[in-house]
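Here comes my example:
=====
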Amino acid sequence: MAAKRKKKTQTLINETASNENITALYIRVSTDFQSEEGYSLEAQEKKLKQWCDLKDYTNYQVYQDGGWSGSNLDRPAMKKLIADIINKKVKRVVVYKLDRLSRSQKDTLFLLEELFIPNQVEFYSMNENFDTSTPYGKAMIGILSVFAQLERENIRERTRMGMYERVKEGYWRGGSGTPFGYNYDPSQDILVPNENAEDVRSIYDLYLKGYSTTQLAKMFPVANDRHITNILDRITYTGKISYNGEIFQGRHEAIIDENTWHKVQIERQRRSTKNIVTSHYLLTGLMVCGKCGAKMHYQRWSGGRTKIICYSQQTSKPNLVKDPNCDNMRCESEDLERLVINDLFDLTKTIRAADTALIDTRNDRTAGLKVLQQKYDIISSKIKRLYNLYAESGDKLLLSTIQDNQQELSSVSKALESEKSSVAVVNDVVSLNNAVKNIQNGWENMTIAEKHRILRTCIDKIIITDNAVDIKYLI
């Protein structure tokens, strides 16, 4: 890898040069070409001065951009050259090679058609032996600009392909954008968990417990709630790498297990569709009309009463109307809230009663998982030993034994994955039960926001059909 050099920008003036009718010698190298023979600043300048001597042009000035890309015109010496042309100081511009002027077709044509020609500035490119004093030269310069642009696009495409292969092998793509909780190790080209890795685990855990991104942003050393959202969405934390819409297995250590990551994605989707509310009304956003399917809402009535009404009966919001003829009954909000809360409390009692059996089930599943994992490890070690024996002896009979063991390993692997899924489901139920089984004891001391969070954790929707209420639980 070439050493990184400091960019140089100089304007060198011949001792005999005046301020008018200058022959501008423009030279440029980018960092990619610093060490290439024939492209150095010194080599370009020498050849351009020799060309001036042959043409007997003594009134010249060197415009030098060292270490600047030709992909655009944002270069100091180029800007000085453009200004001098506009101020009528330049008679002609000379470059060693066309792509020294620019690697962009658009920029090259802009300089030729919008700057050089209108200001009667001649343009010469030594390597291509063309000049703009002839129609042929103008045409060929345009064609060469196209090829310069094509080469630049090819370089970009090769870079993209190289990056794809790099990521496909599990290496981090490098550059900026290292995820929170990781450092980039350039010696291994992988991500390495840092001191914020534990913060990432806490962010996932607390989000699943009901905390909002805004609340989490105040609890951890992040920029804002959008940074929290970015952390929650990144599959990188599971040990994978996302690139151009594809997911690859990375070589870096995972901070979050896949099961937790997927649960967070489900919860994020649930929150986005349910629109967590800050209303002081307890059941806002959960109620659905059982007759027409429209949402139902709270409405104040005279005497301080509040009723639950179908939006189809609210003509002021036509976008929420499902059936203008809906005749679903209106119920008292206090009655509905009392019914829902009592039903939830009854459910938590059932959960507490079922805890012992559920924990026994989890223990049994965990024990079975341990046995399968041990069997998987034993067969894997056996296959490894058989391969080592085959490598030493070349005995082809070992290949048959290896194949039999691989088939057995595949069967155990499937059973192991199935058992892992079962254990994950039981663990989810246990975790959720632990979160909700003591709701009744602390209900009166909760804020309205905490009550909202509890209800939306436990209830999917409440279907109201006249006097009948059907509560669809998530637990």
Summary: Residues 280 and 462 are 18 Å apart (CA to CA). Confidence is low (pLDDT under 50) at residues 1-6, 8-18. The chain is about 50% helix and 15% strand. The first helix runs from residue 41 to 55.
